[in-house]
From TrEMBL:
Coiled-coil blocks: 6-97
InterPro entries in the record: LEKR1
Keyword match Nucleotidyltransferase: no
Record-given protein name: LEKR1 protein
Keywords, ordered alphabetically: Coiled coil
Segments crossing the lipid bilayer: none
Organism this protein belongs to: Grallaria varia (variegated antpitta)
Presence of the UniProt keyword Coiled coil in the record: yes
């Protein structure tokens, strides 16, 4: 009975050992698959991190470029604004000079007209005097 029970237990132990070995093999196989999957995921993460780094660098480069362009445009705008202000100032000066010259010309024309009127009146008087002298003197040249 003991021998039979021992035999039965040994057979059961052998079966259990085989099952244990199979389970260990399956576990080792699953561990290998999981390790492969982990390595694959690590590579994928590395690739994605690299792509992310490249995108960040590209974005930073693009932003730097935009900032420089914006600074350049801002400087250009400042320069054009200063030029515009200078031109407006120059235009005001020219307009003031033109107004002064116009007033001077108007005054000159007024004086010239007065002088012409005076000369015309003097010429008329001189003609009248010459006519009177001819009438009085007869043949005076």
């Amino acid at each position: 009975l003991i021998s039979s029970a021992t035999k039965s237990l040994r057979m059961e132990t052998e079966i259990l050992e085989k099952k244990l070995q199979e389970a260990q093999m399956k576990l080792a196989e699953k561990d290998g698959d999981k390790e492969k999957e982990i390595q694959s995921l690590k590579r994928l993460i590395s690739e994605l991190e690299f792509q992310l780094t490249m995108e960040k660098n590209n974005n930073e480069s693009f932003l730097d470029k935009l900032r420089k362009e914006m600074k350049h445009k801002s400087d250009e705008l400042e320069k054009l604004t200063q030029e515009r202000t200078q031109l407006i100032h120059s235009l005001s000066q020219v307009q003031e000079e033109w107004r002064c010259l116009n007033c001077l010309l108007q005054e000159t024309v007024r004086r010239e007209c007065e002088e012409r009127c005076g000369l015309t009146a003097a010429l008329g008087r001189a003609r009248e005097q010459v006519l009177q002298l001819r009438r009085l003197g007869g043949t005076c040249p």
